[in-house]
Amino acid sequence: MNEAKTKRVRYIKSLKKVPRLSDEEVEELEQVTKEYAFRSNDYYLGLIDWKDKNDPIRRIVIPCLEELTDGGNFDPSAERRNYVAKGVQHKYVPTALFLVSDMCGGFCRFCFRKRLFKHLERETSLDVSDGLEYIRQHEEIDNVLLTGGDPLVLGTKRLDHILTEIRKIPHIKIIRIGTKVLAHNPYRVLDDPELVRVLSKHSLPDRKMYVITQFNHPRELTPQAIKAVNMLREVQVMFSNQTPVIRGLNDNPDVLAELFNRLSYVGVPPYYLFQCRPVIGNRCYTVPLEEGYRIFEEAKKTMSGLAKRAKYVMSHATGKVEVVGIDNELIHFRYHQARNEEKIGAFFSLHRDGEARWLDDYDGEELSTLEKTFGLAEN
Predict the structure, then answer these.
(1) Mean pLDDT of 299-322
(2) Which CATH architecture describes the domain 79-309?
């Protein structure tokens, strides 16, 4: 059998069914899964080097006890303030986020929407009619991002229906699908020619379909994943990639440079390097902002021009705040995007704090001074 063409992937929701975990490990880690669910599949678990307790793929998907450490909150970017209809967020003027799924191919341990897998209330909606109507009524919106969860875990007919309805709205020029399925389970593409046809159908000559992948580590770029990318590229689907910088995963300049370079080689140019959000249970995955900036700058020394176009940003409650520089005393920021459109491009600086992992961690008096201008305390 040609592994790059067909495979029946088996999903796993219990640590007891992960064959390479010992009974002792399962018993210990089930303390975590009582709080934050586990989900993966045999393909993705097969990428783990089980002899290495610090294996990066293991780090992505296998729980760790440090997730039970206190600190953070479930919505550090104040996403709940952005909802305008069930399953639809409208934070930035030209962009609507459509949360169409509360399920993923695998649950990343550092997920910034951990609340979706912990609480019973739904932020997604099976009925997308209200969201579609909101978008129809707001002509300032010219691009829609399908997110969740992961939109590519939806059935192909369901996804086609949503895309078809969005494409009927004349002012929508770009549709993006945010997904980690090509890393978690590339057979979702390889084994479903109808999915390839559907995505191709909605990628029009003057209004492209973009798939925004999340490859976090070079080892996720398997032959199967690359083949899935190429199948979609061949039918005019466009790509870019975003990843957070994660402790013990890609917080090494050599690893990050390899990831970004390999992505650029296969036609998936890096888009954003995100600061890991300070969600409850995520402290062990975060790196301080200033360390993250140094890692990225060191990695860029061996990146191609295409690879180093990515921006290092945090999705703060007030907007996408880009880290643009550090000197002996100050760290410098710019609003790459902002809730208040007038603040886009605004530049500001704060005195350095080597332990700060989020904008709100910096000196309170300085933030208070800037609040009148930038609204930094809106979360």
Answers:
(1) 95
(2) Alpha-Beta Barrel (3.20)
